[in-house]
Write a structure and sequence with these properties.
Number of strands: 9
Number of helices: 10
Low-confidence stretches: none
CATH class: Alpha Beta
Mean pLDDT: 94
Shape: globular
Radius of gyration: 19 Å
Largest sheet: 7 strands, mixed
Number of domains: 1
Structural class: alpha/beta
Helix content: 40-55%
Oligomer: single chain
Amino acid sequence: MDLKQNVSYCLRKTGLLEVSDRLRYWWQKMRYASANNKFIKANASVKFPPPYFIYETYRLDYAEYYNDGFVTAGELVDMIKRNISLSGDGRLLDWGCGPARIVRQFPSLLPANKMYATDYNPGYIEWVQKNIPGVSFSVNTLLPPLQYADGFFTAITGLSIFTHLSVKAHEEWIKELYRVIKKGGILIITTQGPGYRNILLPHEQDEFDAGRIVIRENFKQGHRLYSAFQPPGVIKEMIRDKFDIAEYIEGAKEMVQDIWVLKKQ
């Protein structure tokens, strides 16, 4: 166990990791203050969420937050188009949208389609409903169901969502997302796979290597400090008889999430 792992383990066990995380937020706020102010002035038409919302869901660098959201949205649209034909009347859901870093870009990229987004944090949804046009937002709970009818969506994206859920929630959400996607529709999710193995503690690596999801708790499920690490075999078993793997992109380097593009059978 290296020094960073030791420190993180001790902070988590003593309940001080949240305090450490708050200090990290204030450090980032000071570090990026000058650059963020310049970016805001240069992009006066862009509405930014409260700083802590940005920190919770990304990092407190406004330029990267906005520009990477645009790039990622484009990549997701390309993945969807590679695997299904959008006729112009599609319905797309960003499940776990946060303060809309990505979904805010979808209406301009797919103007003929209807955009939906949902998140368990009512604070995020209150802000996006007031500030982000072209998307129908709603609050979901940590466990299913969603409010939508069977087969309602053409495509669903859920980036870095399973990474903060319990094993039970994994199982229940796979079933629920399967329910609300139409046959032949696309589900895009990310997981903390082999690229994260080296940051795990020895006993966690044993669990991971045995093909079991590793959960780091001590925080409310869904919180950024509640972490789940998923061996690819676990995901394959959970989606069996529900989804075909249209694309699987293993994290190219350490601390990069795996991408799954799944097609409903």
